[in-house]
C-alpha cells in the first residue's frame, strides 16, 4: 500500500531541505564574519592603547621635573659636623631567649 503525498506537502518538505541546506552553507560565512569583527575590534583597542601610552610617556618626559625635597635641618644647630644616623638600641626586655 502506498500513501499519496499532496503537492503542498512535497513543496513544504523541499523548502525545509533547501532552508536547512542554506543555513549550513551560510553558517561558515557567519562564523568568519564574527571572527573578522572580533579581530578588527581587538586591533582598534591595541592601537588606541598604543597611542595613549605614547601620549602619556611624552607628557611625562616634557613636564618639568619636580625639585628634590628639602633637606631637613640638623637637630643640633651648634654642631658643624656631619649629622650621624640614628642608632637603634635594644633593651634586655626586647630580646627573647628560648629556655630549654
UniProtKB/TrEMBL annotation:
One of the GO BP terms on file: peripheral nervous system myelin formation
Any Gene Ontology CC annotation: paranode region of axon
Claim: Transmembrane is one of the keywords in the record: yes
Keyword hit for Membrane: yes
Skewed-composition ranges (Pro residues): 67-76
Segments traversing the membrane: 29-52
Name of this chain's protein: Ncmap protein
A single MF term (Gene Ontology): structural constituent of myelin sheath
Superkingdom classification of source: Eukaryota
Amino acid at each position: 500500500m502506498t500513501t499519496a503525498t499532496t503537492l503542498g506537502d512535497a513543496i513544504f518538505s523541499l523548502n525545509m531541505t533547501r532552508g536547512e541546506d542554506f543555513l549550513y552553507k551560510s553558517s561558515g560565512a557567519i562564523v568568519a564574519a564574527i571572527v573578522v569583527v572580533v579581530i578588527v575590534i581587538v586591533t582598534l583597542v591595541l592601537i588606541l592603547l598604543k597611542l595613549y601610552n605614547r601620549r602619556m610617556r611624552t607628557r611625562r618626559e616634557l613636564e618639568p621635573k619636580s625639585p628634590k625635597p628639602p633637606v631637613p635641618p640638623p637637630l643640633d644647630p651648634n654642631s658643624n659636623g656631619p649629622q650621624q644616623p640614628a642608632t637603634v638600641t635594644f633593651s634586655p626586655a626586647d630580646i627573647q631567649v628560648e629556655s630549654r
